[in-house]
Amino acid sequence: MRVFVAGATGAIGARLVPQLIEHGHEVIGSFRSAGGAERVQGLGAEPVQLDLLDARGVRQAVLAAKPDAIVHQATALAGVRFGRSLDRSFGPTNRLRTQGTDALLAAAREAGVQRFVAQSFASYRYAREGGPVKTEDDPLDPDPPAMARETNAAMRHLDQAVTSAGGIALRYGGFYGAANDGLVQPVRKRQFPVIGAGGGISSFIHLDDAAAATVLALDLGGAGLYNIVDDEPAPMSEWLPALAAALGAKPPRHVPLWLALLIAGKGMVMMADGSRGASNEKAKRELGWKLRYPSWRQGFPAAYGS
Ligand SMILES: NC(=O)c1ccc[n+]([C@@H]2O[C@H](COP(=O)([O-])OP(=O)(O)OC[C@H]3O[C@@H](n4cnc5c(N)ncnc54)[C@H](OP(=O)(O)O)[C@@H]3O)[C@@H](O)[C@H]2O)c1
């Protein structure tokens, strides 16, 4: 297939493009920032500069590329500082997930593109009630913290717009597997503590496994949602000390809930205390996906160990 990858220079895009090519696809890769063309060419794809928030530009680029499939992997998270308001940090990414997705879907319709796969997110979204691990059929959190409402709404928009157009939304776990992963510096500097009992569950996924699942979804997936996470959703009290150990850092500090609420706000506390993990059963069953790193227990040392 001729595959148009929006966001080919990002953390997942840069892993995905070579895997697509290896599977016999021809790839057109979009980037936004200067210097991206060389990076995309270096990955083996045909580069195109594109701002997904420019709907006319998106239409032109997609019509010119004549792809059989589109994979939307654009986010705007590089260099973002995470403060108390997730919605402020995620504002540009939220627009890529709403306006950007709509522009790509409209262009796909006009160009007669048959396959559409987009990046969504699994962790911290499922309803904070019942069992610790959720499937794609389980309800999402109906009442996310105020500082994360727009972010949750943008992901819901993407999920609904893409699947109702016959496409696939991949709810990835927290990415890891690159030297500049977001958690690396804070954990090294002991700035990322275990909050309260650290019982909130997170789901992770190594970038190589995420890319492999994406290739399979493109080839084999049916319209709908897939959790793309590893086999071991885990509480913060387990994965955070293991991540610190893999990085050769001192063990994380512990802070009580009340202090975390005061310093970091409700969103952070929700992730640490009430969040639920995601099940990858559907992706393994329907896509025949086999993980190279079935658990962060092997993946963290493989990614960060010396
Ligand atoms: N599931 C997760 O845990 C998850 C999801 C996403 C990101 N992250 C993390 O966030 C960090 C940063 O992510 P990243 O490296 O992928 O960088 P990023 O800044 O999020 O960029 C991702 C891709 O989107 C493109 N892009 C950005 N703004 C765009 C726009 N307006 N129009 C079209 N394309 C646009 C970028 O192009 P340029 O490179 O040209 O700017 C890049 O190709 C990484 O550590 C990553 O692992 C985690």
Give the arrangement of secondary structure elements:
Elements: E1 2-6, H1 13-22, E2 26-31, H2 36-42, E3 46-49, H3 55-65, E4 69-72, H4 86-111, E5 115-121, E6 133-134, H5 149-164, E7 168-172, E8 174-176, H6 184-188, E9 194-195, E10 201-202, E11 204-206, H7 207-220, E12 224-228, E13 234-235, H8 236-246, E14 254-255, H9 257-264, H10 266-273, E15 277-278, H11 281-287, H12 296-304
Parallel strand pairs: 1-2, 1-4, 2-3, 4-5, 5-7, 6-15, 7-12, 8-11, 9-14
Antiparallel strand pairs: 10-13
Helix pairs in contact: 1-7, 3-4, 4-5, 8-12, 9-10
The chain binds NADP nicotinamide-adenine-dinucleotide phosphate.
Residues 7-11, 13, 31-33, 36, 50-53, 74-78, 96, 121, 172, 174-175, 180-182 line the site of NADP nicotinamide-adenine-dinucleotide phosphate.
Describe the fold and architecture.
- The protein is α/β, with parallel strands linked by helices.
- It has helices at 13-22, 36-42, 55-65, 86-111, 149-164, 184-188, 207-220, 236-246, 257-264, 266-273, 281-287, 296-304; strands at 2-6, 26-31, 46-49, 69-72, 115-121, 133-134, 168-172, 174-176, 194-195, 201-202, 204-206, 224-228, 234-235, 254-255, 277-278.
- The chain has a 7-stranded parallel β-sheet with strand order 3-2-1-4-5-7-12, with helices on both faces. Strands 6-15 form a two-stranded parallel ribbon. Strands 8-11 form a two-stranded parallel sheet.
- Helices cover 43% and strands 18% of the residues.
- Helix 4 packs parallel to helix 5 and helix 9 packs antiparallel against helix 10 (266-273).
- The longest helix has 26 residues, at 86-111.
- The chain starts with a strand and ends with a helix.
- Bound molecules: NADP nicotinamide-adenine-dinucleotide phosphate (NAP).
